[in-house]
């Protein structure tokens, strides 16, 4: 266990590295093909492809994209087809700064699909299906990642193998939510979520509009300073058009001063939900960090909730500790931590972590996730495994290192990379 020296990680609840082996440093995403992610589907459950189009049948398309985040590309495909983006289905949201391969669906003909030509997006018709692609349909993601600018004296493949051995001895990689969940350049999504839960809607909007960093253009920083002074008219003048959410918030407040709830509703639901999810993720990271600190990262304690591969969850009592330790060692179950919501039940350890670190405490925190002012943002909460397994294949190519591994959906490749690299997230290009 090594404390992270990087304040940006601490801001999002990531306080430790699990392993003691020195990292290899380096940087990802130096060139476009350095980060490749491909969705993996269960072949027995994959959408049934049929040969002829009938009523209510969906075109399945294979999308290979670069420099497009999933939501932006979906909007562009919908625009080209002249349809609502709601008619396009996809399983997972993929980052802009990656070469990603995923399935999508749309209730249009093969001929319509084949007419679409979009720069940096290869769109191929696969077949027709009786079902659309839905969120969460894929079961895993396969990653091929190249690390460059490595500054390491020892053999880098040996170092990766040593880190992997150390991780295996400790029960797997920590299943942290990566910086992308919070905003790598502006890690504020969880702070906005916390303000919403405190019913400080003005604070939530102003945080989104006015939080500055030195990586943004001068005009954007001017806009944020005007927003901080609540001069939304001038802020709107300076916000560039690609910052559409900032512009939507500022524009609403110019037309309807002090209507901060209405302003939040002027940005799409998925983005608003992201704020709540980010705060849940921050609390999850804090709990995982505390388990690492106290030496119980993958050690079962009374009151833990254990997840099974079939989706079941069981609470551990004192008599079952040894049983679950054996199941975890065999890879048949996992210790979980909560993504807290209004239906969550926390054990004593989890309550202690919240009491020590957060302004909203225990039961008040749980109740705060039922948001009567913005009911569409209310969240029941779920549990998530705190550790992940990843069999890594590494190979040295000139002065770079190529890594290949598979992760369950919802887990972050950067949780693997940070243990191997132990680099500043900004320098590493996470």
Automatic annotation (TrEMBL):
Entry annotation: catalytic residues: 95 (nucleophile)
Matching Gene3D superfamilies: 1.10.1510.30, 3.30.70.3160, TruD, catalytic domain (3.30.2350.20)
GO BP terms: tRNA pseudouridine synthesis
UniProt entry keywords in alphabetical sequence: Isomerase, tRNA processing
Catalyzed reactions per annotation: uridine(13) in tRNA = pseudouridine(13) in tRNA
UniProt cross-references to Pfam families, sorted A to Z: TruD
GO MF, any single term: tRNA pseudouridine(13) synthase activity
Superkingdom of origin: Archaea
The keyword tRNA processing appears for this protein: yes
Enzyme category, top tier: isomerase
Protein function: Could be responsible for synthesis of pseudouridine from uracil-13 in transfer RNAs.
Similarity remark: Belongs to the pseudouridine synthase TruD family.
NCBIfam families membership: tRNA_TruD_broad
Alphabetized PANTHER family for the sequence: PSEUDOURIDYLATE SYNTHASE PUS7L, TRNA PSEUDOURIDINE SYNTHASE D
Protein name: Probable tRNA pseudouridine synthase D
Protein source organism: Methanoliparum thermophilum
Gene of this entry: truD
């Amino acid at each position: 266990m090594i404390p992270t020296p990087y304040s940006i990680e601490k801001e999002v609840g990531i306080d430790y590295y699990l392993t003691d082996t020195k990292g290899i440093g380096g940087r990802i995403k130096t060139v476009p093909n350095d980060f490749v992610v491909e969705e993996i589907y269960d072949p027995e459950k994959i959408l049934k492809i049929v040969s002829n189009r009938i009523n209510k049948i969906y075109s399945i398309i294979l999308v290979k994209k670069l420099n497009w985040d999933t939501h932006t590309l979906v909007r562009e495909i919908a625009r080209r087809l002249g349809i609502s983006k709601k008619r396009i289905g996809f399983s997972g949201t993929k980052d802009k700064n990656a070469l990603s391969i995923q399935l999508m669906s749309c209730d249009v003909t093969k001929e319509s699909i084949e007419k679409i030509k979009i720069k940096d997006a290869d769109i191929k018709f696969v077949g027709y299906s009786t079902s659309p692609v839905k969120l969460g349909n894929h079961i895993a993601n396969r990653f091929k990642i190249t690390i460059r600018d490595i500054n390491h004296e020892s053999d880098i493949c040996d170092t990766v193998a040593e880190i992997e051995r150390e991780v295996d001895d400790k029960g797997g990689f920590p299943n942290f939510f990566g910086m992308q969940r919070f905003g790598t350049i502006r890690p504020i999504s969880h702070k906005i979520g916390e303000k919403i839960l405190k019913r400080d809607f003005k604070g939530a909007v102003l945080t989104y509009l006015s939080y500055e960093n030195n990586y943004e253009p001068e005009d954007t920083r001017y806009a944020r300073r005007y927003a901080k002074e609540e001069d939304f008219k001038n802020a709107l003048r300076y916000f560039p058009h690609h910052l559409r959410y900032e512009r939507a918030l500022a524009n609403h407040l110019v037309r309807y001063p002090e209507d901060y709830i209405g302003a939040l509703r002027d940005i799409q639901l998925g983005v608003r939900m992201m704020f709540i999810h980010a705060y849940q993720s921050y609390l999850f990271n804090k709990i995982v960090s505390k388990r690492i600190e106290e030496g119980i990262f993958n050690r079962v304690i009374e009151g833990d909730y254990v997840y099974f591969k079939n989706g079941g969850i069981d609470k551990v009592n004192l008599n079952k500790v040894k049983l679950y330790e054996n199941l975890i060692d065999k890879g048949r179950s996992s210790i979980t931590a909560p993504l807290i919501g209004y239906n969550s039940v926390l054990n004593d350890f989890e309550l202690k972590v919240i009491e020590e670190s957060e302004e909203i405490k225990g039961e008040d925190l749980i109740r705060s996730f039922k948001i009567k002012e913005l009911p569409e943002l209310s969240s029941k909460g779920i549990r998530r495994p705190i550790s992940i397994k990843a069999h890594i294949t590494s190979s040295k190519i000139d002065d770079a290192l190529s890594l290949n591994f598979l992760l369950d959906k919802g887990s972050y490749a950067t949780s693997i990379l940070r243990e191997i690299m132990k680099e500043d997230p900004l320098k590493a290009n996470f």
